[in-house]
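Field guide to reading this record: the first block holds the primary sequence, the second block holds the structure written as discrete tokens, and the final block holds curator observations. Each block starts with its own label. This record concerns DNA-binding MarR family transcriptional regulator, catalogued under organism Thermomonospora umbrina.

BLOCK 1 — SEQUENCE
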Amino acid sequence: MIMIMPQQPDRPAPRPGLAEDLRISIARLSRRLRSVSASEGSAGARPGDGRLTLSQHAALAAVERHRTMTPRELSDHEKVQPPSMTRVIAALEDQGLLERSPHPTDGRQAVLRVTPRGVELLREERRRREAWLATRLRELTPEERAILRRAAPILDKLSKS
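BLOCK 2 — STRUCTURE
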């Protein structure tokens, strides 16, 4: 006997193409937000030129969020191999954005912290991106902004799953 389960009335099936539409839109918006920051450059960014690669920015922001991290914790968090993270950390140290200090209980390890200069750089990049986005949001209708306000927690939920 074949049983056909009725669709739950509170959870209708997503319309066809929703996953693709969201993927494309979110990727485009993410690329656009990344391009807004003058200090974040392409993969060709060099130490001291005032720009960060995407990997450097992600690592710096992760250390800031966690307050301190060991290089291994940072490598695991960013899901990159330790030798690659070593290069990222060195570039951030060379730019004065990240500092290393001895681990309080394990002399074989170091602890990473974002410097005041690094905190300021991250703050400025966030300010630029949010200003750009606020300007774009003002171009929308009140109804469109209301939809986005309701969608924001849902997108956040998806990002954490």
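BLOCK 3 — OBSERVATIONS
The radius of gyration is 21 Å.
The chain has one domain: 46-159.
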